[in-house]
UniProtKB/TrEMBL annotation, chain A:
Organism name: Fermentimicrarchaeum limneticum
GO cellular component: plasma membrane
Residue ranges of coiled coil: none
Keywords recorded for this protein, A-Z: Cell membrane, Membrane, Transmembrane, Transmembrane helix
Subcellular location: Membrane
Transmembrane segments: 20-52, 64-81, 87-109, 121-140, 160-179, 199-222
Name of this chain's protein: Energy-coupling factor transporter transmembrane protein EcfT
From TrEMBL, chain B:
Any single Pfam family the record assigns to this protein: ABC_tran
Native source species: Fermentimicrarchaeum limneticum
Domain ABC transporter: 5-242
Gene Ontology molecular function: ATP binding; ATP hydrolysis activity; ATPase-coupled transmembrane transporter activity
Job description of the protein: Probably part of an ABC transporter complex. Responsible for energy coupling to the transport system.
Location of this chain's protein in the cell: Cell membrane
Protein name: Glutamate transport ATP-binding protein
Length: 226, 255
């Protein structure tokens, strides 16, 4: 499930704000430097970060399930369009997507959602949007579980998902329960004094010496890449 | 007695379906009121009107006036009313969103901007009250349904509101836990809190409520002291159950 995995690694201990800065930096490199060499180096950095965090690579593989098809599809499309050189372009696009997904997931695996919310509010991200984002991330595992429950209950009535069939018997109940849950959650939040225009965050994030070191390192890395 | 909830000519309909019709009700401070009725009789809707969720968050045709703790519910935001009114909804899975049990209880207190020390002491007090203190650092998602229900209730009670509204709070609790919950509610009632609880378990109301309302088709069918309402044969016509204790007692009187 895409959720915070408790740990005490260097990546876990890094402040949520520093992680967001580095996440944006790495994504910026990925978007602006789209050549195969840079993408391979970025992939190695991503693997190193996973190694440091102690999160096994099998975790995102499990969490994304069939979603990995979207990483493979570009290679196939480019091969179809240009059989001679398409493979390189296809691999580049796939590596690009793969890195974005893996780096973003690592941030979610190693940072508590409340810390992500605090960091976003710190960066003057609109608080309503930050809270909505936090809630969406929080409910991903719940929705995944709900989908599994629906899949089992439909399978008990003889429904089997084939590659060519539209998953309407799965989507409709999931959508219905999600909307109902969203409405009830809104009622519950407001009934407990939540005011989206005035979000109060009780615990403040504190930068440690290691976080300052990472921040000082950033301009050096920036000049190295650009 | 000071009136805590005053409802005058309340009618509410979702689209064209009338849910509540011409409801008039007065609940005094310190009362323990049970609300019963068949499915679709408007019990949960009535509860949602008492903390301003209807008409603030749920759209529909709203007529009449509701004054709760001296505030007209149409003129105040739900978050403002929440300072005096706490509500526990039926499904705890739709209310719990924090990653840790303690954060869920602290949520409402943080919204009120209470000092950190006060938040921590209340979190501990209410988690202990519901036997959840050992789970304080766990993900609420991994709790049992009964524990989730207790957590949702603890999260509302920690706000220490004057008026507590509960929608079928014992639906996912076993008998022991439900009795324990009603014991806590009864103690809160003794110190002056007003309790309004929608409940299907008439036995539980017989033991705890001072007054019972019966809703049928969006109207108040019966309203009075618990024992006299719950022994009225009209409630069986609505598909509700007369508590066994009262049935046995009436048989003995007749025999």
């Amino acid at each position: 499930m895409i959720a915070f995995i408790p740990g005490n690694s260097l990546v876990h201990r890094t402040d949520a704000r520093v992680k967001i800065i580095y996440l944006v930096f790495l994504l910026f490199i990925l978007v602006t430097k789209q050549n195969l060499g840079v993408l391979v180096v970025m992939s190695l950095i991503t693997l190193l970060l996973y190694q440091l965090s102690g999160i096994p690579l099998s975790q995102p593989c499990r969490d994304l399930g069939r979603g990995w098809l979207f990483v493979v599809i570009p290679i196939l499309l480019h091969l179809l369009i240009n059989p001679q050189t398409g493979i390189y372009r296809g691999i580049a696009v796939s590596l690009f997507l793969l890195n974005i997904i893996l780096i973003s997931l690592l941030d979610l695996y190693t940072t508590e959602i409340s810390s992500i919310l605090q960091a976003l509010v710190f960066f003057k991200f609109p608080s309503e949007l930050a809270f909505t984002l936090m809630i969406s991330i929080r409910f991903l595992p719940v929705m995944q579980e709900e989908l599994n429950r629906i899949r089992v209950s439909q399978a008990l009535r003889g429904y089997g998902l084939t590659p060519l069939s539209l998953p309407i018997p799965l989507i409709v109940p999931l959508l219905h329960s999600s909307l109902k849950r969203a409405m009830e959650l809104a009622v519950s939040l407001e009934s407990r004094g939540f005011d989206p225009e005035n979000i109060h965050v009780a615990v403040e994030l504190k930068l440690a010496a290691m976080d300052y070191l990472f921040l000082l390192l950033l301009p050096f890395l920036f000049s190295l890449v650009f | 007695m000071v009136e805590q909830i005053g409802i005058r000519d309340l009618s509410f309909s979702y689209r064209k379906k009338a849910v509540l019709s011409k409801v008039n009700l007065s609940i005094s401070k310190g009362e323990f009121v049970g609300v019963i009725g068949p499915v679709g009789s408007g019990k949960s809707t009535l509860l949602l009107t008492m903390n301003g969720v209807i008409p603030s968050l749920v759209s529909g045709n709203f007529e009449g006036k509701i004054v709760v703790c001296g505030m007209d519910t149409r003129k105040y935001k739900v978050s403002e009313l929440s300072r005096s009114v706490g509500i526990v909804l039926q499904d705890p899975n739709s209310q719990i969103f924090s990653l840790k049990v303690r954060d869920e209880v602290a949520f409402a207190l943080e919204n009120r901007k209470l000092p950190r020390g006060e938040i921590e002491s209340r979190v501990e007090k209410y988690l202990r009250m519901f036997d959840l203190l050992s789970k304080r650092d766990e993900d609420p998602h991994n709790l049992s349904e009964g524990q989730k229900q207790k957590l949702a209730i603890a999260s509302t009670l920690a706000m220490e509101p004057e008026l507590i509204l509960l929608d079928e709070p014992s639906s996912s609790l076993d008998f022991g836990a439900a009795t324990e919950l009603y014991g806590i509610l009864k103690n809160l009632n003794k110190i002056g809190r007003t309790i309004v609880v929608v409940e299907h378990d008439t036995e539980m109301l017989l033991d705890n409520a001072d007054r019972v309302l019966v809703l049928n088709d969006g109207r108040i069918l019966l309203d009075g002291p618990t024992e006299s309402v719950l022994s009225n044969p009209k409630i069986e016509k609505c598909g509700l159950k007369i508590p066994c204790t009262l049935k046995r007692a009436s048989r003995r009187v007749r025999g």
